[in-house]
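Chapter review: from sequence to fold.
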Amino acid sequence: MGFKAAIFDLDGCLYRGDAPIEGASKALEELRGMGFKMMFLTNNATKTVEEYTNRLNIIGIRCRREEVLTSGLATSIYLAERYGSVKVLPVGGRALEEELRRIGHTVLNLRENYEAEFVVACLDFDFNYEKLKNACQAIYNGARFIATNADPTVPVEDRLIPGAGAIVAAISKATGRRPLVVGKPSRIIMRVALEKLGVEGSETVVVGDRLDTDVRAGWKINALTVLVLTGATSLRDLERWRGVKPSLVLESVRELPEALKRL
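The token string follows.
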């Protein structure tokens, strides 16, 4: 088969809201038994790596801290590798701030917007006009604009809610600046994931529920791409999609081990 690792999206792929996808835990254990390395990769930066690790274990999906990568941590790693320790004005919650500090960056408050070298935006449940105003002021003053991701929505139990893309779009509209996006489908976050796994893209299976992020991200690294229909994308959406098509389409991640055995 030739595959050594699997990269899984979280929201809409392994769980929706607080509810795990039926059969996900069993499927992942079977993949581990087949020799797969695991990476749990999410564009959602509202929780820290430790919080995602705990959440997965609580719902029955065995996971180690080093197997989790968020767009917040990937952004922090990217900034450190490219620019060293920098001053960041975050538009996001505590988790984003923790991931930035973890790698050695200085996190500024809103009143310090004039000092910012970078504005980093993610999904922020407390987003308001004051945050928008200060983020824009920092960018007007020369700060570079980074988005952890630009997902338009986030799947929860039985509905979709606005995602980071809505916040990023507001800042972009007001400043006229397009952000550098670190999260999927960017090659930046995928490169970080592959380095952590120690594999090549062609040795990897990328699994997710979005065509525009998960499937495109997998395609960019020459991975086998798997779309699951438990999240943001329906078969009708797939039929209308004019972009890169997934290698496999499954009703759920629980079908993945058998699908890979048939390849």
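Two observations follow directly from the output. The chain is about 40% helix and 20% strand. The mean pLDDT is 95.
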